[in-house]
Design a protein that fits this description.
197 residues, alpha+beta, Jelly Rolls, eight-stranded antiparallel β-sheet, 1 helix, F5/8 type C domain-containing protein, FA58C
Length: 197
């Protein structure tokens, strides 16, 4: 065999090994990419375990709870979830109650509750984004303002959880009454996760 032919055989052999090596690396790269993609899909919402934010247990002080009006002996401070009394406005639809949270918070929803025959049929929720006094309504996926179901005379005293999808960042949350039963009555709590400063 001539020296030229020997060189050609060596070059072919080296080229074959390089191709084989590249082919074995490529599947590993693809596998790594798939693993990374799966990991990203499995990431949880930063607030996947929302907690009550302080209305029920009294951490949020009375002065942080404001309302458009209140009936006699039914001030907004009585609107705490599972409390012995309730908030009732002087009028029905259009009345609102608002809580200023202790810090900017990822709000995941609200829990509402009536008292016997005093409850709210339907309501809307608005909120103030961090560092803003502007009110923004919680919406449906199509952009329309979401209308929440407050319950009926048979379940009025049972707490109802209303989730926000997606969650919203806020420093204040307002519930706006849109329909009432006989006399409006409301107790509530806000759920979410404080945003780290």
């Amino acid at each position: 065999m001539s020296s030229i032919a020997a060189c050609l055989l060596i070059m072919l052999a080296v080229g074959f090994l390089v191709v084989e090596n590249d082919a074995s690396v490529l599947p590993e790269l693809k596998t790594d990419a798939l693993v990374t993609k799966d990991f990203n899909l499995q990431k949880k919402d930063p607030c996947d375990s929302p907690e009550k934010l302080g209305l029920e247990d009294g951490d949020i002080p009375d002065e942080n709870i404001q309302a458009s009006s209140n009936a006699r002996n039914r001030p907004p401070s009585k609107a705490r979830l599972n409390g012995p009394s309730f908030w009732s406005p002087a009028s029905g639809p259009g009345a609102w109650i608002e809580v200023s949270l202790l810090q900017s918070t990822e709000v995941a929803g609200v829990i509402t509750q009536g008292k016997a025959v005093f409850f709210v049929n339907t309501f809307k929720v608005s909120y103030k984004p961090p560092s803003s006094s502007r009110l923004v309504y919680v919406t449906e996926s199509n952009g329309s303002i979401k209308l929440f179901d407050g319950g009926d005379p048979y379940t009025a005293s049972t707490p109802r959880t209303h989730d926000f999808d997606p969650h919203v960042n806020a420093h204040a949350v307002r519930i706006v009454i849109t329909a009432v039963h006989v006399m409006p009555g409301l107790r509530f709590e806000v759920i979410g996760c404080p945003i780290d400063a």
